[in-house]
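Re: [ENG-882] Designed sequences occasionally contain unexpected residues at chain ends

Forwarding the minimal case from QA. Structure tokens:
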């Protein structure tokens, strides 16, 4: 986020943190049990979120290496995104849903349902009011985060 570090997810089931200027690996997180399909990092670089074919979302404390496992999808997690205020995680899955999780507790806040194909991408608008999802069903949907309502596709 600050341009000094980048993170990556890999087919080898790892999440890695890199020095952006030198390319040197700084940390390697190894808790996933299948391919890592998506990663996101907090603005200050203290938290990494990852999604995997193992159907989990994982929240990593970069400093300590501690990992919180978040379960609730019935299919592979293909996309993850932190909310603008970094209090929520959004995850898109082959189970055709986007789920919103509370960062502090790991609890499910809301499930966004309406796609008829796996969800490949999720992002949150800079004002924090809308979540956008893209799916194999060839639609992009705009969701009101507060109500969970799909306002257009």
């Amino acid at each position: 986020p600050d341009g000094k570090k980048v993170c990556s997810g890999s087919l080898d089931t790892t999440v890695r943190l890199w020095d952006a200027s030198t390319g040197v690996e700084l940390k390697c997180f190894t808790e996933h049990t299948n391919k890592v399909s998506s990663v996101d990092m907090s603005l200050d670089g203290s938290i990494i979120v990852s999604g995997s074919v193992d159907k989990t979302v994982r929240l990593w404390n970069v400093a300590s290496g501690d990992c919180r496992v978040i379960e609730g999808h019935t299919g592979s997690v293909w996309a993850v995104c932190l909310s603008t205020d970094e209090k929520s995680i959004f995850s898109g899955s082959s189970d055709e849903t986007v789920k919103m999780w509370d960062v502090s507790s790991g609890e499910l806040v809301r499930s966004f349902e309406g796609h008829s194909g796996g969800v490949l991408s999720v992002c949150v608008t800079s004002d924090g009011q809308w979540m956008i999802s893209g799916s194999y069903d060839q639609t992009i949907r705009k969701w009101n985060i507060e109500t969970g309502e799909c306002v257009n596709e």
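QA comment: On inspection the terminal residues look reasonable. The chain has no helices and 15 strands. Proposing we downgrade this to a documentation issue.
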